[in-house]
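Lecture 7, part B: from sequences to assemblies.

Below are the input chains for today's worked example.
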Amino acid sequence: MSDVPKSSKIGNNVVLEEGVTIGEKVVIGHNTIILKGTDIGNNVEIGSNCVLGIQPSGNQRMRKIDESSKQLIIKNGTRIGHGVSIYSGTIISQNVFIGDQASIRENVSVSEETVIGRAAIIELNSTIGKRCTIQTLAYVTGDTILEDNVFIGPCVSMSNDKYMGAEEYTLKGPIIKEGAKIGNNASLLPGIIIGRESIVGAGSVVTKNINNYEIVAGVPARRIRS
Amino acid sequence: MSDVPKSSKIGNNVVLEEGVTIGEKVVIGHNTIILKGTDIGNNVEIGSNCVLGIQPSGNQRMRKIDESSKQLIIKNGTRIGHGVSIYSGTIISQNVFIGDQASIRENVSVSEETVIGRAAIIELNSTIGKRCTIQTLAYVTGDTILEDNVFIGPCVSMSNDKYMGAEEYTLKGPIIKEGAKIGNNASLLPGIIIGRESIVGAGSVVTKNINNYEIVAGVPARRIRS
Amino acid sequence: MSDVPKSSKIGNNVVLEEGVTIGEKVVIGHNTIILKGTDIGNNVEIGSNCVLGIQPSGNQRMRKIDESSKQLIIKNGTRIGHGVSIYSGTIISQNVFIGDQASIRENVSVSEETVIGRAAIIELNSTIGKRCTIQTLAYVTGDTILEDNVFIGPCVSMSNDKYMGAEEYTLKGPIIKEGAKIGNNASLLPGIIIGRESIVGAGSVVTKNINNYEIVAGVPARRIRS
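Predicted structure of the full complex, as structure tokens:
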């Protein structure tokens, strides 16, 4: 069991593995599991039934794991809901909000004041800017870049494998520039660049890059205004 | 620990906070957490690893929380699966079925005999009628109204914010009238009215209101029959 | 409590119900619940907060439950993530990988070396071949058949009820032939046959059968090459 400051409050049946660091005024719900090498800042709130600091795993058909992924860092003032899972090798910055049942993989960076919705998933090696909103059930694939102030609507889907496993391909997620907004249930293809302050309509399928300030919609997505 | 009637059966490592009320012949699975102010009727079955009675939370970038959300009420004969999360300020009526990993936010009302599928999400301030079916992974956004006997297919997506956070907007979910059926993975825009006993085809994107008894499909959805 | 071989390692607060069989060199994370009648082979790894061996449940509006679903079998070398739920009456073969928060229903068979992604859902009575990849948040409806080497992209949605509950209908999921690939967020209608080594583009809505080796895209999906 790790040292817990007196100002922090830990629920029932919580597991804190060796080498976990807990800041001041932290609140942790019941049945939450914090695995070794997790570093939790001050004023962090964590719900019940979470698993934090997971070491990556896989089988022989999956991509090789970076064994150097060692630590999960959660900075001051961040709030994490119930049933959330976060991997090691990831940094969650100050004042981030992570909804219930969300999950965040290894080697991800989430910047200040970003909101990650309920059951949203951020895959490995992704970089999420400041003050982004990633809504409920949105899926951010591996190797994705979101600049600051990006809005990802509910149920948005992304992919990073052009050949769906059939050929060798360097996996590339979308690159979404500052202030862009993606409507609910839109689909983004691998490596697509979404321009600054552009808007993608709900349910669109984006197969080509989108210029800055452009508004697109449809299947495939076409410019409707700019 | 609350008083538990002898006819009720509580699993291992269950947390029942102060002021929780448990009816007769209730079954609660292992590791489930029931937070203060939750009122559970007779013959209710609850699975393992649930968190019930969650107080709303947020950060400064999210909408203001109604601090008056005080109690979660679950009425007689309702069955709740494993890993489910339900917030306070919500009423779940008699004989409702809630699948595993579903989540239901604060200030929601779910009426008799409705079925909520596995991993489906009902956001805050929504009203769900009687005998509705909300299938697996469906997303019901905040401020949505479903009348009675509505069918929401798997992976249906809804939105309630016309400007995706860019401008002030009174959030409006869809209004779905009695007996309407929405096909799997369809997308509904904010404030859309879906007419009585109308049908929306799978994968459609609904951008305009739909009349009673109309059948629509496509992107954007157009009438194919009525 | 069941007999656990000395070579196996069980986390804190784990519940092993009566009649559970645990093989050699098994690792089980914290707070995981293994219900009666579950049979776990050698070298299996299971994460935290899982519920395995769930007996089917329902309410009077749902389809009748097969009460003969008695046992969950997990074969040698399989790895299961955190927060996973699996029902009884299901067989998971050797060296399968199941991501966090995935769920698999009763009477399902998953063959060797298949990868099931994070939060993916496999509904009841489905048959999944060898070396398939079912990506994150994909939804495999009930009564679906996947042959070997099938690729299902992230957020793919399927349905099995042509009349959405309005008429009597024998539920039929899609049949996806060997080596077919389905792009992210595509929608498949009930009973559709997807031909051998065919490709379905991201975001497509598949309303008709697809021939072997055909490439289709769009809403509704049309042939773009073969």
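Note for the exam: The first strand of chain C starts at residue 9 and ends at 10. Keep this in mind when comparing with the next example.
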